[in-house]
Amino acid sequence: THKYAFAYESLKAVARTTGCEFVDPLLYMCPEGFCSAFDNGAPIYRDWDHINQHYVREKATFIDELILGK
User: Which residues 6+ apart lie within 8 Å of 25 measured at CB?
Assistant: First the structure.
């Protein structure tokens, strides 16, 4: 099972009841089920589960695409 299964199901339920869309960042960040800890030698995560601000600003463009429709 997915280690975040409970959280994901809870967020999906909230999204359904509020008319929002649930977005799984792992679909964008972990292609083919592999999550790298580094991007060109730089760490992606600031701790065990949270991506660092540099990665978000420079590489997590899927967030902009989803929000702004680019």
Answer: 60, 62, 63
d(CA 59, CA 21): 22
Q: In this structure, is the dihedral angle defined by the CA atoms of residues 48, 49, 53 and 56, taken in order, positive or negative?
A: positive
**pLDDT for 8-54, tens place per residue?**
999 999 999 999 989 888 888 887 888 899 999 999 999 988 999 99
For tokens 């975040």, the residue is 4
Q: Which amino acid is at 53?
A: Q
* CB 29 within 8 Å of CB 23: no
Instruction: Give kind and range of the element (H or E) at residue 29.
Output: helix 26-29
Q: Strands of the chain (E only): list them.
A: 38-39, 42-43
Task: Choose among 20, 47, 46, 49: nearest CA to 57.
Answer: 46
